[in-house]
Each structure stands twice: as C-alpha cells, then as structure tokens.
Design a protein that fits this description.
By secondary structure, the chain is mostly helical. The protein contains 13 helices and no strands. Helix 5 crosses helix 7 (153-177) and helix 5 (107-118) packs antiparallel against helix 11. The radius of gyration is 18 Å and the shape is globular.
C-alpha cells in the first residue's frame, strides 16, 4: 500500500483531533438519554454503515481479500476499538468531562511509551519532552473541572484510562497491517468486530430502551449523530490515514490538539469563556507539538 504524503498525513491527524474535541461534549450530552452501551452500540452501528458504504464505493465492494493472519489481527484491533468507545463512555458516567479530558490527554504519553517499546518507530528521547509539555497543557486547560470530579472519580478515571490504553494499542497495531490492507478496510472491519461484541451487552445496561425513544431529546439525538458521522466514521478514518503516514508516536502528540479544539468549540457553540489558564495550557500543548515535530523531523534527514 502506498504511503500518504507527510503533509496530508499531518493534516488528517489534526482533523481527527479537532473532531474528537467536539466529541467530548457530544458524549456527555448523549449520556443524558442513552446508557453507555446504548450510545456506544448506536454510534458504532451508524459509523459502520457509513464506512461500509464508502468502502463499497471506493474499493469496489465485493470480496474482502485478507489472509487468516490479518483476519486475526483485525479481530484483536477490534477489541481496541471496543475498549476505547465503550470504556470512555462508561467512565464519563462517573467523572466530569473535564476530568475525562485530562485522562484522555495522557494518550500521547501512553502511545509513545508503548510504541517505542513495542515497535520502536522513534527513540523515546525524541518524543518525551514534547509529550510531557503537551500533557502539562492538557492538565492546565482542564484544571477548572477538578471540583466536579463526579460521583465515583476513581472508578470513572480507571475506565477512561483503560480506554486510552485501548486506543494506544489500536494505533500501534494498525500501522503494520495497513502496509497490506487499506485504512478504510481496517477501519470498518475493526468497527464491525467491536459492534458485534457490544450488542449482547445491551441487555445489561439499558436507559433509552427502558424509557422509550420518546424520552430522547433532540439535542441528544444530534449529539449521537455527531458521534456517528464525525467522531467515528470521519475522525477514525482520518486518524488511521495519518498514522499510516507519520507513525503512532508523532500522531499521538498531535492528538493533544483535541482539548484545544474542545475549548474553542465550547467557546463558540456553548458560549463558555476562555481564561488565562486555558490560554497558557493551549500554548504548552502547541509548544509540545512543535518540539516533537522538530525532533522527529531530524530523524528523516
């Protein structure tokens, strides 16, 4: 499979980060009418429908040509998607979006550590400095949310963190298989695995199914729609495309732009104010991104 250009790959990762920034608000809104499992299943079914239609159109549909080894790897990657989508939603039941955002902001550190240890795509020294600068910025922009940690902050924090680990492993594992299989194929097949595994869990965690569809507000339907189209179908495809081009370590640090996007979207859509802490945090995040890009760019020459 051909490699995407570096510029396009970076742009794809930035797009995914911006769309995921909006998904933090959308996930909290959706939990008003849906249980975590219901929201995750409906999100994944909708995203899968879009991805399958796109795959059929772009790649001719028909026969899925993958060998048995790759099929097994796609199944394992599906567990990563399942863990990321479901565990984060479950965790957001118990912690505020701000606290969840801080934990999700640890994704670059987690991915860099696991990536450097498992596939050694870049040296640890090239990513740690920028990763920690960005992580410090993520903590600052969310510091105001710590007073509303939620009902069970420890349980919620653990669930969200496990979701972060799931995504880190998914990002790392997907790069190798995308040398043989298109990013679009990886995306829909792993999402299909995650969807199938979640459906039986609907009988253990119901909210909308008990109250009826009439209980779902318009805003919660819109939030779910955003998760389906942008956070799942578009963002996940853009992320995989970017990871294929620049690797999981560099992509994960650019993922720190997610809280920057979340703050901007909150200010524009929700009318929330942006204070000095948020501005300092954004500067730290962008500085971290610049440091990692500068350090890793030297490795390409």
């Amino acid at each position: 499979m051909s490699q995407p250009s570096t510029t396009v790959a970076y742009g794809s990762v930035v797009l995914a980060a911006v769309l995921w920034g909006g998904s933090i608000v959308a996930q909290k809104m959706a939990l008003g009418s849906f249980s975590a499992v219901e929201a995750s299943v409906l999100r994944d079914i909708g995203g899968l429908a879009i991805l399958l239609a796109t795959w059929w159109w772009k790649e001719g549909g028909g026969v899925l040509k993958i060998n048995r080894t790759d099929m097994g790897l796609l199944g394992l990657l599906g567990l990563g998607v399942l863990g990321n989508h479901l565990l984060i939603l479950m965790g957001l039941n118990y912690v505020s979006g701000a606290v969840g955002g801080v934990i999700i902001g640890s994704s670059p550190v987690v991915t860099s550590l696991l990536s450097a240890c498992l596939i050694r795509d870049v040296p640890l020294g090239a990513v740690w400095g920028g990763a920690f600068l960005s992580f410090a910025g993520v903590g600052l922009v969310s510091v105001a949310g710590f007073h509303a940690a939620g009902e069970q902050p420890l349980l919620g924090s653990i669930l969200v963190f496990l979701g972060v680990v799931s995504w880190a492993l998914y990002s790392i594992g997907s790069r190798n298989i995308m040398e043989r299989v298109s990013a679009l194929t990886v995306n829909w097949t792993t999402l299909a695995v995650a969807t199938v595994l979640q459906i039986p869990l609907l009988w253990t965690d119901q909210k909308m199914m008990d109250a009826g569809m009439s209980s779902v507000t318009t805003s919660d339907w819109l939030a779910l729609g955003y998760l389906v189209v942008f956070a799942t179908a578009v963002a996940q495809q853009a992320w995989l495309f970017g990871v294929k081009g620049i690797g999981p370590s560099r992509a994960s640090v650019l993922g720190n732009l997610t809280p920057v996007a979340a703050i901007g979207l909150s200010a524009v859509i929700l009318g929330e104010s942006v204070g000095h802490i948020e501005i300092i945090g954004i500067c730290l995040i962008l500085t971290g991104v610049w440091v990692v890009n500068r350090q890793t760019a030297k490795l390409d020459h």
